[in-house]
Amino acid sequence: MSNTKKKELTEKSEGLKEGIKTYLKGVKSEWGKITWPEKNQIFYETLVVLGVVVVFTLIVLILDLVFKNFVFSWLK
């Protein structure tokens, strides 16, 4: 490899290293600004999500039974 190509590769790798360092410094500074939810909030919000999933599951089950028993019986 010629000297100019080696120099270009070295400059690019140094620029990449500096870019990564700058990025990680930014991540570290932003990490401190995060406000994490309390355990109680996570627990109750998880219960709400599970409740909504159960309700929608029951709705889909009921609709499935309706279509299965009534709608398809008309087709016979």
Could you give a quick summary of the protein structure above?
With 76 residues, the chain is mostly helical. The chain folds into two domains: 1-34; 36-76.
What would your notes on this structure say?
It is a single chain. By secondary structure, the protein is mainly α. It is elongated and about 85 Å long. It is built from 2 helices and no strands. The protein has 2 domains: 34 residues; 41 residues.
Describe the SSE topology:
Layout: H1 3-31, H2 39-75
What are the main properties of this structure?
2 domains, mainly alpha, 2 helices, elongated, 76 residues
Q: What is the first-to-last residue Cα distance?
A: 79 Å
Shape estimate: elongated
Main sheet record:
none
Helix content: over 70%
Poorly predicted tracts of residues: none
Helix and strand element order: HH
